[in-house]
Target: DUF2811 domain-containing protein
Amino acid sequence: MKQQTEIGIQADIPEELFVELKKHVDSKDGMSWERLIIGALSLYLLQNGVNNKETNRIYLESLFGYQV
Model:
């Protein structure tokens, strides 16, 4: 398996959305901001026609919290 490269992102979001996301992350054991964002982005790509092994793997890892 090739080594995965990671990059940082920064985004401005409405405060109301941030508050609800923070509540969710704080209430779930094993959940992190990284896992939440990676899961959301990979699911978005899958739902919009991107269908490759790496995107599927990343989504499953974020969903279940372990490496596939």
About this structure: The helical segments are 15-27, 33-47, 53-64. Residues 31-68 form one domain. Residues 33-47 form the longest helix (15 residues).
